[in-house]
Amino acid sequence: MQIDKIRGHQTEQLFKAILELKDLDECYKFFDDLCTISELQSLTQRLEVAQMLKQRKTYDTIQHETGASTATISRVRRCVDYGSGGYNIVLDRLYPEEKEKEETQ
Questions:
Q1: Among residues 37, 54, 66, 43, which one has the least CA distance to residue 102?
Q2: Most buried residue, 3, 27, 38, 76, by CB count within 10 Å?
Q3: Is residue 3 over pLDDT 90?
Q4: What single string gives the DSSP state of each residue in 42-67?
Q5: From residue 7, how far is each of 2, 13, 76, 84, 89 by CA, in Å?
Q6: Alpha-carbon distance 69 to 67, whole Å?
Q7: Would you put residue 85 in left (φ > 0), alpha (ψ -120 to 50) or beta?
Q8: Residues with Cβ within 8 Å of residue 80, at least 6 apart in sequence
Q9: What integer best gives the mean pLDDT of the chain?
Q10: Among 1-10, 36-45, 52-61, 74-83, which stretch is predicted with the lowest mean pLDDT?
Q11: Among 54, 55, 49, 91, which residue's Cα sits nearest to residue 72?
Q12: CA 95, CA 38: separation in Å to the nearest integer?
């Protein structure tokens, strides 16, 4: 698993720091300091792609609506389908109504 490659003190410190953020305003401030605009846009784009994949949108639709490359969409698809489950954890919590829809299909 990829996760074993990133485990370590520095990564743990970063994740603990993120867990200490109290609200959206603190998140904006922290990520403004932490990431370039491009890095943050890439992260947000991947999350949007994951959500759209879970909604069973086509690659063409996702590419058109997000601007993501097919390579990015494919990588996110692999993570959604065969990864550690991180996208699914977050998206199921953000959009519980969509999870219920999935379970009934």
A1: 54
A2: 76
A3: no
A4: HHHHHHHHHHHHHTT--HHHHHHHH-
A5: 9, 10, 21, 14, 19
A6: 7
A7: left
A8: 50, 53, 54, 87, 88
A9: 93
A10: 1-10
A11: 49
A12: 26
d(CA 90, CA 6): 19
pLDDT at 24 over 90: yes
Place of tokens 């846009």: 41
Residues in the chain, how many?
A: 105
Phi and psi based region of residue 56 (left: phi greater than 0; alpha: psi -120 to 50; beta: remaining): left
CA 87 – CA 32 distance, rounded (Å): 22
The DSSP 8-state label assigned to residue 35 in this structure reads S
Do 24 and 15 form a contact (C-beta atoms < 8 A)?
no
Task: State if pTM tops 0.90.
Answer: no
pLDDT for the residue numbered 97: 85
